[in-house]
């Protein structure tokens, strides 16, 4: 169950990172994007909690990128043992790997957007 949770949480983190990146590109204020999206169907614990941290520029860890990457590697190992391919997992592994390579491993998951 923990692996299932970490996979789904990672996909939510990716949605958070891309949502904020897209809003930034459109010239939208992060706090407004956070509020509006958080009040609709796309809202989630990760969007609401870690998105609030992002609007404040707070990248401190609630959960560290390097630890989430480790957990995603466990998911990948289980998938390999079963011959299962999950495209979202593969993308997460690539992005979390890049984040660790950039020295972001000790930051919170909300810092994943720094690799976009």
UniProtKB/TrEMBL annotation:
It comes from the Bacteria. SUPFAM superfamilies: 6-phosphogluconate dehydrogenase C-terminal domain-like. Residues 1-115 form the 3-hydroxyisobutyrate dehydrogenase-like NAD-binding domain. GO terms for molecular function: NAD binding. This is 3-hydroxyisobutyrate dehydrogenase-like NAD-binding domain-containing protein.
């Amino acid at each position: 169950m923990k692996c299932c949770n970490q996979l789904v949480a990672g996909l939510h983190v990716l949605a958070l990172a891309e949502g904020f990146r897209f809003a930034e590109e459109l010239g939208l204020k992060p706090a407004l994007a956070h509020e509006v999206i958080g009040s609709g169907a796309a809202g989630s614990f990760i969007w609401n909690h870690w998105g609030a941290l992002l609007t404040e520029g707070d990248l401190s860890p609630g959960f560290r990128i390097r630890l989430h990457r480790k957990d995603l590697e466990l998911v990948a190992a289980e998938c390999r043992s079963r011959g299962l391919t999950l495209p979202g997992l593969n993308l997460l592994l690539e992005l979390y790997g890049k984040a660790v390579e950039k020295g972001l491993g000790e930051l919170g998951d909300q810092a994943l957007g720094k690799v976009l």
